[in-house]
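>> received
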Amino acid sequence: MSEEIGFDFGGKRVSADKFRPIYISEFKRVLETYAAWDITNILEWGSGLTTQILAAHAARLPNVELFLTIDGKAAYQQAIFAERERPAFLKKLALDLTGPQSLAPELPYSTYPLSLGGKFDLIFIDGRRRMECAFAAALLSHPKTVVVVHDYRRPRYQPILTLFDVIEDGKEFRVLRPRAGVLAALGDLPTLPGSPSPASS
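>> returned
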């Protein structure tokens, strides 16, 4: 799989130049340090350059079965792998940020993964509705799950620490694990109805 990071969207090149120089190198280091083995299922909220990096990293691991990336913009998400091979384990979904204003069972952006009824080994939060995603991530975690959050210093994101213990605070990314007491209180994850299967995308 190509290691070149970037893609074209809307007539412009989306590349590492739009971020601080350390962004890409720190993200890769976090993956090599905390997600180098025993990874089967990966979840990403907020598709982009990191989707390409995660896919390349996952391709080097022996046991990855699912990498689900969720975004709010289908065209942007489609562009990410328009110029490169998409691995079979990568499933992408573009979902509404708020969901239907009714009692319809479909689950939106932040809660869709709850419909799968499983746990994830690595969860990356870098999109919209990050607090909602963090609360969903707690339900989707097991004791060894690694949760990575970008732009973690924003004051509105600090309540996340009621759910997770900090492993590392980097310059760009915070690495977390779910608190044991939180997992015990949450119990087993029920399978929720709703939304199309990620296998269809």
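>> Helices lie at 22-34, 49-59, 74-80, 130-139, 180-186.
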